[in-house]
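[step 3/7] inverse_fold.run input=structure_tokens len=253
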């Protein structure tokens, strides 16, 4: 067994300096199973980045806020955001796994990533305090953080939010999941499709589509979304149905 250097910085500056000697360790639920090739760990738990707060603009999660922290903050969150955090994993994992860890490692089957995409979420990075839209970061594939730290996650609160999924059982990870966020009356509608692939996908358009156009676009985006969990035909049909259903629930037909 090779040895591993463990660092536990007390400040963000110390942590950033240590990134040349190791990778960030948050909840460790993913990292500790994949230590091969890693020479050092920079434990983030003493940095005080676990706050969750509601602001005029929306919600801010510190990078090390746990998934269970989100669940317990439910009374201040859109109901389906807290539900997505609960669906992400069981209680034990939720108590350790962090929001940033989930963003770095989460795939298309992540309910939380799907909902965060529909919320117009930005990630705050250190060093530099740069804020980058979540969809841009997810598009970077395995290299999502590029040697930086996610210090905070800023989610814009929509007027309304809905998330629905189809899974093998009510608490299982989705085969197909759809999140719809509606802001500025009906002027800003964001729809994210999850349940497959490397990360959830954001639907895009020039003019807000009606329910039929949105369902057609979802069907076309899911045309090649077949894998071991479901055929592309199943996902396209189920995804279009969920989009139609959620837009109807939100009076956006
Ligand atoms: C038994 C078990 C069951 C699981 N079930 C599920 C499941 O159902 N669904 C699911 O999605 N996942 C599941 N996972 C995987 C895991 O729980 C998630 O990927 C988790 O969200 C990772 O978060 P973490 O805080 O534990 O990250 P860590 O394991 O600490 O880190 C993961 C990656 O993120 C990087 N990282 C962490 N924080 C930051 C930061 N602030 N800035 C930059 N980089 C950072 C780390 O360097 C590492 O590369 C499971 C894991 C286990 C062990």
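[step 3/7] decode complete -> sequence:
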């Amino acid at each position: 067994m090779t040895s591993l250097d463990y660092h536990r910085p007390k400040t963000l500056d110390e942590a950033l300096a240590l990134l040349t000697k190791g990778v960030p360790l948050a909840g460790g639920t993913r990292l500790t199973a994949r230590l091969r090739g890693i020479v050092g760990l920079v434990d983030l738990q003493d940095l005080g980045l676990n706050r969750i707060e509601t602001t005029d603009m929306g919600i801010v999660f510190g990078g090390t806020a746990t998934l269970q922290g989100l669940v317990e903050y439910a009374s201040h969150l859109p109901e389906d955001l807290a539900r997505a955090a609960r669906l992400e994993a069981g209680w034990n994992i939720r108590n350790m796994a962090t929001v940033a860890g989930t963003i770095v490692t989460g795939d298309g089957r992540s309910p939380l990533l799907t909902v965060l995409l529909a919320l117009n979420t930005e990630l705050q990075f250190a060093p530099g305090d740069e804020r980058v839209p979540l969809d841009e970061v997810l598009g970077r594939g395995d290299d999502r953080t590029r040697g930086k730290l996610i210090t905070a996650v800023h989610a814009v609160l929509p007027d309304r939010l809905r998330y629905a999924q189809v899974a093998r059982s009510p608490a299982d990870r989705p085969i197909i999941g759809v999140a719809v966020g509606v802001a500025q009356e009906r002027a800003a509608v964001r729809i994210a499709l999850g349940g497959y692939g490397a990360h959830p996908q954001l639907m895009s358009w020039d003019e807000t589509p009606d329910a039929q156009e949105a369902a057609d676009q979802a069907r076309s985006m899911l045309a090649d979304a077949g894998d071991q969990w479901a055929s592309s035909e199943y996902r396209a049909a189920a995804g279009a149905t969920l989009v139609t259903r959620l837009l109807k629930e939100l009076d956006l037909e």
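[step 4/7] annotate
The first helix runs from residue 12 to 18.
Residues 23-31, 33, 44, 63, 88-89, 93, 96-98, 100-102, 104-106, 110, 145, 149-150, 173 surround flavin-adenine dinucleotide (CB under 6 Å).
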